[in-house]
Specification:
Blueprint (H helix, E strand, L loop, with lengths): L9 E5 L3 H7 L4 H22 L3 E8 L7 H24 L3 E5 L8 H14 L6 E8 L1 H17 L10 H6 L11 E4 L18 E4 L9 H13 L10
This protein binds 3-methylbut-3-enyl trihydrogen diphosphate (2 copies) and magnesium ion.
One 3-methylbut-3-enyl trihydrogen diphosphate binds next to strand 2.
Length: about 240
């Protein structure tokens, strides 16, 4: 038998197109972000229904600070309120919620507290792990990992000759997270935008024109169907 038939273990999504969705309706960009909540929760339910183990969503990048202050402020408040409103429901569904990204610096203290509370509330859940990449950049993550490794070398705890892929991977934000098998990006953009640079090395990429607020579980299932028709080789040849 050829081809992949199993569902992916880990799906990562770049939730893009909120601004354009809103602009097409004569709404504010921030209305598009708000409309993305329904897309996210429908997708989460679909993922739970099919027994996905890991779902990671890109919610705010280290480059998104370049946006107008009003939009950034909205996104901080929106994410805080989303956690407050939705964490009990996620907890009841057995979802373990986690965050990857830089927590310090510009992330408001209130949002940071909600993140920590939500992680603590759901830490023991054994259903799907839903990871929010927030104030996340792939390059920042690799720089942070390199700094952590350098510190251990400087402290004499680690032989520099022993620094290899496994050592670096152990210093990423979520060292226990398996690499994504499938990356989905919405809104017809064909780029990674600094998402999970290390972890996406062998992910299958799937792009759709659907704008994020219109995304529903059916779109996730379509992407997974496409994934199942791909042939993954990981640099080897078919035998
Ligand atoms: C994605 O939608 C959400 C974030 C980046 C926070 P956008 O806000 O990037 O929407 P477009 O790409 O401008 O349409
Ligand atoms: C990527 O989308 C980041 C998130 C979805 C959070 P962007 O809209 O920021 O990416 P670019 O700027 O189009 O590359
Ligand atoms: Mg965008």
């Amino acid at each position: 038998m050829t081809g992949v038939t199993a569902i992916p273990r880990h799906v990562a999504i770049v939730m893009d197109g909120n601004g354009r969705w809103a602009q097409r309706r004569g709404l504010r960009r921030t209305d598009g972000h708000a409309a993305g909540e329904q897309a996210l929760f429908d997708t989460v339910q679909g993922a739970l229904d099919i027994g996905l183990e890991w779902l990671t969503v890109f919610a705010f990048s280290t480059e998104n600070w370049r946006r107008p202050v009003d939009e950034v402020r909205f996104l901080m408040g929106f994410n805080e309120s989303l956690l407050l409103r939705r964490r009990e429901e996620l907890n009841e569904r057995g979802v373990r919620v986690r965050f990857i990204g830089r927590r310090r610096g510009r992330v408001p203290a209130r949002l940071r507290r909600r993140i920590e509370e939500t992680e603590a509330l759901t830490a023991r859940n054994r259903g799907m792990t839903l990871t929010f990449a927030f104030n996340y950049g792939g390059r920042a993550e690799l720089a942070d990992a390199a700094r952590a490794v350098a510190r251990r070398v400087a402290a004499g705890e680690l032989d520099p000759e022993k620094v290899d892929e496994r050592v670096l991977a152990r210093h990423l934000y979520a060292p226990d997270m398996p690499d994504p098998d499938l990356l989905v990006r919405t809104s017809g953009e064909y780029r990674i935008s600094n998402f999970l640079l290390w972890q996406l090395a062998y992910a299958e990429l799937c792009f759709t024109d659907v704008l994020w607020p219109d995304f529903r579980r059916e779109h996730l299932f379509e992407a997974i169907d496409e994934f199942q028709r791909r042939e993954r080789r990981f640099g080897a040849i078919e035998t």
